[in-house]
Task: structure prediction
Amino acid sequence: MLYFDYTATTPIDEEVLETYIRVERSFFANSTSLHKLGQMSNLMYEKASKEIKELLGTPNHNLVFTANATEANNLGIYGAVLKHGSGRIITTKIEHPSVYEVFRNLERKGYDVVFLDIKADGTVDLEQLEKAMNKDTLLVSVMWVNNIIGSIQPIRQVIEIVKRNPKAKLHVDAVQGIGKILPDFDFSDVDLITLSGHKLYAPKGVGALLFRKQMELEKRLYGSEAQFGVKPGTISVALAASLCKALKKYLPLTAAHQKYVSELNRHLRKGLERLDYIVLNSGEDGSPYVVNFSLPGKNGETVVHFLEKHEIYVSTGSACSSKLKKPERTILALTNDEGRATSSIRVSLSHLTTKEEIDKLLEVLEKAKDV
Amino acid sequence: MYDLILVRYGEMTLKKKNYQSFLKQVNTNIKARLAKFPKLTFSSTNFRFYIHLNGEDYRMVLEELDTVVGLSSYSLCLQVKPDFDEIAAAGVALINYEKEGINISFKVETNRSDKNFPATSLEISKEIAKRVLPKVPGLTVDVHNPDIVLSIDLRTEGTFVYVKTLPGLGGLPSGMSGRGLLMISGGIDSPVAGYLCLKKGIDLTAIHFASPPYTSDMALQKVIDLLQELSKYTLKEEINLLVVPFTKIQTAIHQKADSAYIVTLMRRQMYKIADMVARKENISVLINGESIGQVASQTLESMAVINEVTNMPIIRPLATYDKTEIMEIARKINTYDISIRPYEDCCTVFVPEHPVIKPRLKNVLVQEEKCNLEALLPEAVAGIERYTVSFKNKISIFEKNTFEI
Result:
């Protein structure tokens, strides 16, 4: 089997799994229970939270463990925006659905929403952002690394622009960047940050939302006061510890992995450039972990199934939930070409990927010409 | 938004001869507490302290200032040139930033201690009001009940404009009033008593009596967590905790004395031990959370009989407070939720159904004699365990039960 869908999810790391099992066995007690076992669970939970904040350099943020990044994005964005009855909120046209759809819903609720265009290199148009910022701006949400084409957003500049308006808050979905590429910004300069565990070799079922301590988020879930009342409910200490373990293991390896995967990326791009029926959608300056390309005239899904027969797993990245083949939103925003947007394929890499695997992929892709 | 925070000192401003030593201490304390913000710079005069933000987040700086004892208030300022245009522009920016709602009223107050400025305070206020008014939609003037007061402070060290002034913690600077030994049980009162003493500049060491297995690790953790909260208000951001093994003394009293006297006798031994420890540690006063009439051991008669074992001064900051007043402070300093954790402490185990409310010393001494406690007291002192508690580095006695992630 050749797995090239690491952007969708990653296999669990053995050490992280061991942490999960060990913590789940020894610290099964409810972390809010007053007895000793409960206090021990609580201590492990606090340890996980504290260590993650130390790793990110965000001692002045609160951390809430969520079920996944979608939940973190929802709690963070709704929490920050619904605190205010009206105002402007700004995001990009290429956000993950768990951000994009939240903004669309807020638009229906009457908020003044701006969806920023992206430039040919897949990065957000900063001039548009500057123009869109006004004194009523409540929130700006820009992802760090795009999940479809891998473009790296200029978060450092976004921070500078948003900062000029003291009332506006900045949310960054860091899911596809963290542990994969080195940031050129400080996490402590971002008001709300979303993380996911399973994109970084931790189990499914855990994500995190960090938000600046001074912020009060409007509740979306009601229950106990656990996790600042933002995400009430019994905490899985083992999942919290697993996320911590994954970050602890992979953050220090970020530079090394980035370098290795960049070499793989160059090798793959070189191979793809030789295939004349393929158009690359990902730019060279993006995340090396994501290579998106289109096969104009073909259906993305058909290509996925063709590769699958050879036990090669890639993704279309498009929402084929219905029989209507909808064009991929990000590719469409990037290329304005429906043909490209319905025939896109996303190959995503990992430090676990080898050159041989890429050679095999290229070999099979050559046969895809006649699919 | 803001350029600087103007800090005004608290009660120490009433001092005369030793004002300078208070001033030096409080300035040192502010700078020490704000050392974690590298961009800040400071300046001061005899009655004011200026924190120049240089881009640091003022909210986080304020959060720290809120734990510095001895400050009366802070104003969030823009610093401008002593010139009508600049002052008015700053006023407009501040009102736009702070106003909530559309229709708001304001007035201008000017304090001109720099007499070089060529207009009187009243003239300045009028001129600035005239210039600001048309620039902010919905703004009106109300000199009696304004929503916003725009303050202009013309001083030799600079011209400051502000609309927001927040209260400080008050009290006297930490490190100016000697050391006290806080007797802490884990209830609601003792942490509040400790806080009130910290506010008066007293440096705290804490003493706690533990009676395992009747009291649990959780009860001890509760005390650690309480002191962690209090440590925010100390100079070094930490408090030393001395834990006295009290089981032997408590069981001896329980077995041998008339049950009505258990609490009186127990508290007398606690005072004796606290006295011994304080002398050993060079501490000059004892502090506790007693409040008159709250429980049997806190009637005036009980206090007298219990107090008889020591001639060390005992500060009881809560003596005249009602429980509701104490709870209010406990909530403010985040100790309330910790205090109500339902673990037994040494004051709640072995409590008789009908304790003596007005004990007589003569009878108490007879009961005490029966218990043979003399040898047990120094033994308890020798067995003291010492912890350094700080909110910066939380300690947990369950640490040994966990592992590194």
In short: The interface with chain A takes residues 1, 59-60, 63, 96-97, 216-218, 221, 341-343, 394, 396, 398-399, 401-403, 405 of chain B (CB under 8 Å). The radius of gyration of chain B is 27 Å. The longest strand of chain B covers residues 158-170.
